[in-house]
Amino acid sequence: MDVFAALADPTRRKVLELLCVRAHTAGELLDACAELSQPAMSRHLRVLREVGLVSVHPDEQRRIYALRREGFTDLGAWVARYLPFWQNRLDALEQHLARSHPTDTPHDTERSTRND
Prior knowledge:
The chain is of the alpha+beta class. The chain has two domains: 3-67, Arc Repressor Mutant, subunit A (Orthogonal Bundle), CATH 1.10.10; 69-102. The chain is built from seven helices and three strands; from the N terminus they run H-H-E-H-H-E-E-H-H-H. The termini are far apart.
């Protein structure tokens, strides 16, 4: 499985969101996804490990999961290839809005009077 297929699953995205805050034990992640069974959570965590997005290290009887910076660096590099496309689109939108809306709207005038 590749990283994009792994990210397509909403449960795995939820796990990544939780791990973005701090490292968690497998049990904490399971508690946060109460609708999942322990074997299902184990499968999700295995997929995230295999694609390189999370790491795991044992701590006595517990397994601690954390995000792997390297996995997201590769993902970010791939996404960066498409940023110029979006930047051009956003620039075009900004130009369109500037042409179609006056620069000094009543809302802007009201705001500038309050700031004086």
